[in-house]
């Protein structure tokens, strides 16, 4: 296993993560890769990005597919895919061109979201140790928020759109041998109720299992967000079981290794050493199922003595993950 980082693209950030002992990164500039020109990534521009990243002693091991991001669907270039509008065939074709470009540029993994809603949190933060603040979610405070203008979207409608996408995209991923890692819906909402009229079908363990079952391809898998998985569960054992289930099936392509305090429908995102998940047990479970990929910090607490991108908090998380990897590799 390897410690990695997903971080904003800049020379400062690339130097920072290399100094922290990172080799494997997920990063890209917001512009200049072809999206604004032709609607999809272009191979020559991705290759130039990879070579730039490599000049810092790093490997561009994955990239987020910006057209299918974690932002709200209204901010996604490929919004038609999850809205189910007539333009979705055009946008799916663009996703396929992104896959082809990644393969030609030597980028093995694309990470993406199939979500209508963005990441949902309550509008205030909760206090933590030494004056840091944590992002927070409490369903009871948000459950009566008004419906979204592009809803309602039932579970059946969401699944139809997901299946339509996968049937057309995964064969292309197979052809070009690019792994497609999908993030889970963050956070999960009550089944049959959803949030603001939108069902979140990838917000439960059963939903993620169904998603994986839709294709036997080894290139169809997960950007496995351990934090989001924890948000679906009511006990740490359920989280370890999820690692086993998806890890044994080799469907974990990338790991967001973060911790929460709380459980389904009410939690806060904390430092990895102070949450309810035993991160040592978690990393042993990844090792036991044969996961040999990358683990990255994800959302980190905010501090007024840190940089806007949270370099100090990320340094702590990177060192924590690196030490856990060294310990588990020595034991097994």
Relevant terms:
TIM Barrel, globular, 13 strands, 8-stranded parallel β-barrel, 332 residues
With helices defined by DSSP (H or I, 4 residues minimum), what is the helix count? 12
**Unreliable parts:** none
Radius of gyration: 19 Å
Oligomer: single chain
Corresponding CATH superfamily: Divalent-metal-dependent TIM barrel enzymes
Class by SSE composition: alpha/beta
Lateral strand order in the biggest sheet: 1-2-3-4-8-9-10-13
Find the CATH topology: TIM Barrel
Number of domains: 1
- Categorize the overall geometry: globular
Number of strands: 13
Give the secondary structure arrangement, pairings included.
Blueprint lengths: L1 E5 L4 H9 L4 E3 L8 H4 L4 H12 L4 E6 L15 H4 L4 H18 L3 E4 L13 E2 L5 E2 L1 E3 H4 L12 H22 L2 E4 L22 H9 L6 E6 H7 L3 H13 L3 E5 L2 E5 L2 E5 L8 H10 L5 E3 L14 H21 L1
Parallel strand pairs: 1-2, 1-13, 2-3, 3-4, 4-8, 8-9, 9-10, 10-13
Antiparallel strand pairs: 5-6, 7-12, 11-12
Helix pairs in contact: 3-5, 5-7, 10-11, 11-12
Could you characterize what this model shows?
- The chain has a single domain, classed as TIM Barrel (Alpha-Beta Barrel).
- The chain has about 325 residues and is of the alpha/beta class.
- Helices cover about 40% and strands about 15% of the residues.
- The strands form three sheets. The protein has an eight-stranded parallel β-barrel, surrounded by five helices.
């Amino acid at each position: 296993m390897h410690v990695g980082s997903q971080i904003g693209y800049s020379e400062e950030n690339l130097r920072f993560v290399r100094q922290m002992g990172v080799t494997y990164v997920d990063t890209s500039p917001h512009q200049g890769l072809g999206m604004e020109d032709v609607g999809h990534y272009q191979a020559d521009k991705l290759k130039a990005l990879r070579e730039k990243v490599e000049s810092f002693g790093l490997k561009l091991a994955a990239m987020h597919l910006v057209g299918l991001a974690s932002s709200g669907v209204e901010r996604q270039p490929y919004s038609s895919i999850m809205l189910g509008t007539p333009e979705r065939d055009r946008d799916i074709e663009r996703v396929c061109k992104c896959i082809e470009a990644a393969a030609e540029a030597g980028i093995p993994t694309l990470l993406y979201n199939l979500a209508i809603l963005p990441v949902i949190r309550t509008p205030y933060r909760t206090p933590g140790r030494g004056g840091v603040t944590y992002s927070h979610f409490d369903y009871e405070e948000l459950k009566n928020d008004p419906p979204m203008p592009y809803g309602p979207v039932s579970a059946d409608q969401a699944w139809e759109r997901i299946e339509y996408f996968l049937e057309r995209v995964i064969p292309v991923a197979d052809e070009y041998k690019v792994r497609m890692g999908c993030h889970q819906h963050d956070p999960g909402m009550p089944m049959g109720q959803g949030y603001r009229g939108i069902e979140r079908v990838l917000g439960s363990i059963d939903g993620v299992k169904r998603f994986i079952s839709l294709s036997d391809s080894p290139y169809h898998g997960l950007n496995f967000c351990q934090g989001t998985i924890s948000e679906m569960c009511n006990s740490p054992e359920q989280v370890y079981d999820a690692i086993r289930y998806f890890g044994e099936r080799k469907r974990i392509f990338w790991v967001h290794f973060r911790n929460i305090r709380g459980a389904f429908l009410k939690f806060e995102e904390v430092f990895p050493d102070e949450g309810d998940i035993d991160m040592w047990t978690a990393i042993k479970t990844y090792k036991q199922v044969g996961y040999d990929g990358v683990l990255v910090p994800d959302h980190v607490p905010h501090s007024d003595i840190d940089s806007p991108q949270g370099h100090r908090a990320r340094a702590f998380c990177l060192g924590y993950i690196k030490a856990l990897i060294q310990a588990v590799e020595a034991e097994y």
